[in-house]
């Protein structure tokens, strides 16, 4: 005789945790990618795609010590590999997102313009260290490179960026 | 300028940026993420539906390929379906015509419990914002034997906790009054996403559910009192096994010099050779190489004084390397080379102080024990 399976009606606890995780991490991650990519829409694309990937595997990702680090790494990888807008999900997300973006602020423009002159690896190292506050070791882990490489990127990127910001000021 | 001064300038710039930019960056409703994931599943399932129809014509099996390990119909487990209290049809009711979308959304409806509203509801025809309840899809079940004629509906609601769904069977009496015959399946820990319903070859209705990123077909049949699951998995899909760790191999990427031919109609074309070598004796994991072009230095003609060598100024062929497509693996000691062409338009930054083509190698299946040779740069100049 077959057994009846009981039904849990409410959304399971892990999904409530995802909602809170999303609310707590979206803005910070989006700002990181905005300053790296220089384009808010593109930053939103990669961040939302990263959260979509997290949701699909949330039972696994939610159990990590730092699910935020997983999402951050996915988002940055998407940005590095030139995640573009052709994807079905991205088009879908863009249709859902009706947001008025204010005009550029001079501070933002100066920083983004200065960062845009750096090679991408140097730019990532500077943003991850000075904005995300990651250590050299953490950046090396995220980038899958040696710590010495990160130090080199950071040193060169910092010198070039500081010179340009100083020139602007 | 000292390191400390550099750090201070940069920290201040990022602090100002965050302060200025944060108010204009808002997290969209989390329901958009849920909807996007559901949309993604829907696109995938729609593609698979065509294959499913072929499988019926070619009598192989109707339980195939939508989920790992989901092919074996269970023989000893019934589904969660049970009629809602008070929703059973009264003996005086006689079956009416099939229930269409207009009828279902055109009169107050009671639904079985599911974490959203249940009483005296007006169902919407399309998805809406938080608090809305809408009809997604309908499947007609022809009456035969113990099965009365009925219509099964996939219904969603958008709650503060995200999207909830249930599949409900309805019957319409001669007066046109629609009542619930009971719940077929509902969102739960074992059923995180109910994706689609369709007519069943094995029973009365097939429900496509997704869990752990995989789709499952679950078939239900009316047993005279309620819907019972007769085939398909009853447990969530098993997460795909993690891949065995790849042997660590030291990959090195190198770039040749980049040279350009003469300008023609404002365009210069050049080429560069990318070589990836496995310096270890063991085979490598797969890898990708992304190429990028940047300009370092002042750009007098550019807004703001600086310009990145963007996609409008540079074309990299073949694009599968430029976009970082996966390659490899490489045998121990092996190497692979590709010549990539660059097309530059005149208007941008390649006349600046320093122009750089960079190649970033990313191991896809394992870490590289020496990461510092995963990146290469090649400076180039273009005479004005």
UniProtKB/TrEMBL annotation, chain A:
Residues 109-161 form the RNA polymerase sigma factor 70 region 4 type domain. Keywords: DNA-binding, Sigma factor, Transcription, Transcription regulation. Residues 34-87 form the RNA polymerase sigma-70 region domain. Gene3D superfamilies: 1.10.1740.10, Winged helix-like DNA-binding domain superfamily/Winged helix DNA-binding domain. InterPro entries: RNA_pol_sigma-70-like (IPR039425), RNA_pol_sigma-70_dom (IPR014284), RNA_pol_sigma70_r2 (IPR007627), RNA_pol_sigma70_r4_t2 (IPR013249), RNA_pol_sigma_r2 (IPR013325), RNA_pol_sigma_r3/r4-like (IPR013324), WH-like_DNA-bd_sf (IPR036388). GO terms for biological process: DNA-templated transcription initiation. One of its GO terms (molecular function) is sigma factor activity. It holds the Pfam family Sigma70_r4_2. Belongs to the sigma-70 factor family. ECF subfamily. This is RNA polymerase sigma24 factor. It comes from Rhizocola hellebori.
TrEMBL record, chain B:
Keywords: Membrane, Transmembrane, Transmembrane helix. Signal peptide: none annotated. It comes from the Bacteria. Residues 75-100, 360-384 are annotated as: Disordered. The chain crosses the membrane at residues 45-66. Residues 79-97 have a biased composition (Low complexity). GO terms for biological process: carbohydrate metabolic process. This is CARDB domain-containing protein. The lineage of its organism: Bacteria, Bacillati, Actinomycetota, Actinomycetes, Micromonosporales.
């Amino acid at each position: 005789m077959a057994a009846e399976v009981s039904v849990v009606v409410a959304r399971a606890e892990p999904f409530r945790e995802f909602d809170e995780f999303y609310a707590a991490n979206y803005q910070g991650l989006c700002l990181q990618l905005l300053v790296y990519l220089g384009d808010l829409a593109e930053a939103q694309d990669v961040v939302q795609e990263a959260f979509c990937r997290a949701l699909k595997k949330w039972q696994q990702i939610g159990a990590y010590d730092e699910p935020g680090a997983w999402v951050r790494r996915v988002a940055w990888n998407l940005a590095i590999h030139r995640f573009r807008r052709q994807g079905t999900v991205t088009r879908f997300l863009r249709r859902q997102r009706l947001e008025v973006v204010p005009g550029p602020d001079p501070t933002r423009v100066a920083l983004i313009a200065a960062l845009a002159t750096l090679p991408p690896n140097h730019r990532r190292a500077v943003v991850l260290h000075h904005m995300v506050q990651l250590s050299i070791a953490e950046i090396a882990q995220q980038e899958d490179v040696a710590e010495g490489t990160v130090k080199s990127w950071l040193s060169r990127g910092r010198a070039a960026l500081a010179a340009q910001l100083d020139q602007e000021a | 300028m000292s390191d400390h001064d550099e750090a201070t300038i940069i920290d201040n710039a990022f602090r100002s940026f965050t302060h200025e930019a944060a108010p204009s960056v808002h997290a969209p409703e989390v329901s958009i993420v849920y909807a996007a994931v559901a949309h993604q599943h829907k696109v995938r399932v729609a593609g698979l539906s065509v294959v499913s129809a072929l499988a019926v014509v070619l009598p192989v099996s109707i339980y195939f390929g939508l989920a790992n390990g989901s092919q074996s119909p269970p023989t000893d487990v019934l589904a969660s379906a049970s009629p809602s209290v008070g929703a059973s049809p009264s003996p005086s009711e006689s079956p009416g015509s099939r229930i269409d979308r207009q009828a279902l959304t055109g009169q107050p409806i009671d639904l079985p419990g599911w974490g959203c509203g249940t009483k005296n509801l007006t169902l919407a025809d399309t998805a809406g914002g938080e608090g809305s309840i809408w009809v997604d899809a309908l499947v007609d079940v022809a009456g035969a034997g113990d099965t009365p004629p009925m219509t099964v509906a996939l219904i969603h609601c958008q709650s503060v906790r995200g999207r909830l769904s249930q599949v409900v069977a309805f019957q319409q009496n001669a007066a046109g009054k629609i009542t619930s015959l009971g719940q077929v399946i509902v969102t739960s820990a074992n059923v995180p996403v109910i994706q689609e319903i369709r007519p069943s070859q094995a029973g009365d209705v097939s429900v496509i559910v997704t869990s752990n990123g995989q789709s499952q077909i679950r078939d239900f049949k009316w047993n005279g009192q309620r819907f019972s699951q007769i085939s398909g998995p009853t447990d969530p899909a098993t997460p795909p096994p993690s891949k065995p760790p790849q042997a660590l191999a030291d990959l090195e990427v190198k770039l040749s010099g980049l040279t350009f031919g003469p300008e023609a109609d404002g365009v210069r074309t050049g080429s560069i050779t990318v070589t990836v070598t496995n310096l270890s004796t063991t085979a490598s994991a797969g890898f990708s190489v992304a190429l990028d072009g940047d300009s370092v230095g002042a750009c007098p003609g550019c807004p703001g004084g600086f310009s990145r060598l963007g996609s409008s100024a540079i074309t990299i062929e073949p694009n599968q390397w430029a976009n970082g497509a996966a390659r490899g693996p490489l045998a121990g000691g092996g190497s692979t080379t590709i010549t990539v062409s660059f097309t530059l338009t005149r208007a941008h930054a390649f006349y600046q102080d320093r122009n750089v083509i960079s190649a970033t190698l990313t191991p896809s299946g394992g870490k590289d024990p020496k990461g510092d040779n995963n990146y290469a740069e090649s400076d180039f100049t273009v005479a004005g």
